[in-house]
Amino acid sequence: MEIFVPWKKDYTFRDSTRPFFLVTSEVWQPIIGGCCLGSLQFFSLILLSKSLGSSSAFSSFASFIFSKEQLERYPYLKRFRSGLSNIGTLWFVFSVVLGSFISSNFSGVFAQAQPVHPYNAVLGGFLL
């Protein structure tokens, strides 16, 4: 993918002297980010027998909105109420949001993103 769409062309660096692997970097090189995410995926499979993802976090979060009596009417949601993997998914989503916030504050780029064209946003969402 980098051959066809180099990531450095999509970003205007304010300080190009900072390395791409520090917490204070403006952006991380995609290969480094991929290696970090792959390492987390490995441990997630070993510890939780589940791959990383956030789609089931919606169901896990929704299961905590209802009381246990109300969950009896929703057997699908009931199975997301307990279990290490369900709680782990919620922690994963919380950690992604918190980590993004911390990283953007350390790098000094918080709330400085340029708007994305609606076509690109829809295409990116579809591809995800």
Automatic annotation (TrEMBL):
Cellular compartments annotated: Cell inner membrane
Which spans are transmembrane here? 27-48, 83-102
Q: Name one GO cellular component term.
A: plasma membrane
- UniProt entry keywords in alphabetical sequence: Cell inner membrane, Cell membrane, Membrane, Transmembrane, Transmembrane helix, Transport
Determine if Iron is one of this entry's keywords: no
The highest taxon in the source lineage is Eukaryota
Q: Does the keyword Nucleus apply?
A: no
Q: How does it sit in the membrane?
A: Multi-pass membrane protein
Listed name of the protein:
UPF0394 inner membrane-like
Species whose genome carries this gene: Brachionus plicatilis
**What is this organism's lineage?**
Eukaryota, Metazoa, Spiralia, Gnathifera, Rotifera
